[in-house]
Amino acid sequence: MNSTATVYDTQPKSPPGDLAIWVFILAELLVFAVLFVVYAMARRNNIELFNLHQLQLDRAAGLANTLVLITSSYFVVRAVAAIREGETQRCSRWLWAAFSLGALFLLIKGAEYQHHFSMGVTLRSNDFYLFYLSLTFFHFMHVIMGMVILAAVALKAQRGGYSVSEHTGVETGASYWHMVDLVWLILFPLVYVMH
Amino acid sequence: MKYQSQLVAKPYFIAAIGLFIGQIIFGLIMGLQYVIGDFLFPEIPFNVARMVHTNLLIVWLLFGFMGSAYYMIPEESETELYSPKLALALFWIFLVAGALTIVGYLAVPYARLAEMTGNDLLPTMGREFLEQPTITKIGIVVVCLGFLFNLGMTVLKGRKTSVSLVLMTGLVGLALLFLFSFYNPTNLVLDKFFWWYVVHLWVEGVWELILGAILAFVLIKTTGVDREVIEKWLYVIIAMTLITGILGTGHHYYWIGAPEYWQLIGSVFSALEPIPFFMMTVFAFNMVNKRRRDHPNRAAVLWALGTAVMAFLGAGVWGFLHTLAPVNFYTHGSQITAAHGHMAFYGAYVMIVLTMISYTMPMMRGRAAANSLKSQVVEMWAFWLMTVSMVFITLFLTGAGILQVYLQRYSDAPQAFMVVQEKVELFYWMREYAGLVFLTGLLLYVVSFFIGGKEHAEQRA
Prior knowledge:
heterodimer, A: about 200 residues, mainly alpha, Four Helix Bundle (Hemerythrin (Met), subunit A), 7 helices, B: about 450 residues
């Protein structure tokens, strides 16, 4: 047992986590990439409209959410580091911390939606809002999905389901969460900031 | 075969193949009516032949799914089926109801059938693919409820695996979504929405879960690769299926009076629907390459790989061909759609049911694992004849479709529908010939079951 543990320790396998999640992550990134390209094309056709309505967005909220997600990713990194040292409870606590930040993200984003809807904004308002709402909502759903994965991993860690030698699940969940974060890091400047 | 009750799958599969032959015969009749307009008129008008062709397809695929589930669930749950008697009773109810419905389509005019079956009490008839009289629809629901109850009880008392979870999710979804066929709003746009909730969310949603589960089951059995590895792939594939497939419904909302944003959502998400099918291809070939043994039933492995490839081509590539709104503006409802429909249904759903039949039938007929080599060679001939002829049917229809779109809708001087139909006649003839080859392949497939000989043994332990 010990000898396998050493092998794992000295040679972290690449890519970390399950190969299947990487296939999934690539597919997801492709989905978002297509959405971003279509966004760029639609924006090029109507730059004034996009620039005008972009100003209606709450950049402070967007920036706050960016920080929230980056911090949550850092927590997830700590969780992986903890399990590599065999500290299952500490790993689980870091995961729950990341989960809470995910929830905070949903709250802030929810408040933004609340604001837009109270102003009467819908998918049909104009092309900008069509893209803004569908892109961010699609990402919103991914945050929820990522939180479900984090919670599942955290619960298993709590029960002692991972160890120094076998913690593929933690790395798998972490990889997915980083993707959710990464997509937002592109989405935020693209939709909120770039003028 | 590990459990005696798995044997209830056998009548389901036999009925499925019987109805499949019927479906192909009506396909050939219709194919001929494309070029000889009054062939068999007034006995079997085109619209009736079409209804029988598509309805038989759906019914026999349902028989195939049910048979597959009755075979898989006891083995996955490691216990006998809750009630084999119920399964057999439902089989006969479903078969008789299905046969009566088809007889009804053929014997009396559709409007008369609607009158006879009391459609005015709860109007559900008249929608494409869901033409069944209301009473048949109620029968389908009853059969599904009994079927799900039977399987559910089996799963609950036995081992729970990811494969059975995914399969059950797909089957429950299939039954639930069918309920939308009972709602018939008067607003035509709404009506289409609910209609697609059945049609689209079946074939580009829950049926894919069933397909994935059956494929995973057969690959676990034939390759000996660890269940954990296969289950992970299964999860990734179905997650992608649902992410792209559910919003992909939007590609049906382009020109029916729905809000314009569906053109964006439908285009983007349905353009990505090939991804899960591509993953399925990679998955199937990977598992077979990593196999721990050479299963003696080589025909079943061939069918499994064929499913993965043809589903990707038919559902994935041919679907993508006309799914983007700006393209679909021209191709909507043309022969391109027919091309896609043929290869997608064959590649994804026909082939997966045949995969399962190919894998299970030898065991249900008393062999240890596989038929004789002689029988398998004939079956593989059948595989190639059917698959290659389907490729040609698809190519000919695509050719007809491209010409049709150009002459009728795109050129500077668009021509009338019937004028164009005559110009593409050659393609329809070639499609009909390819259809005859398909029928030959299907008959050969049936023949392969009756070829005896010594059982083909495993080559490598």
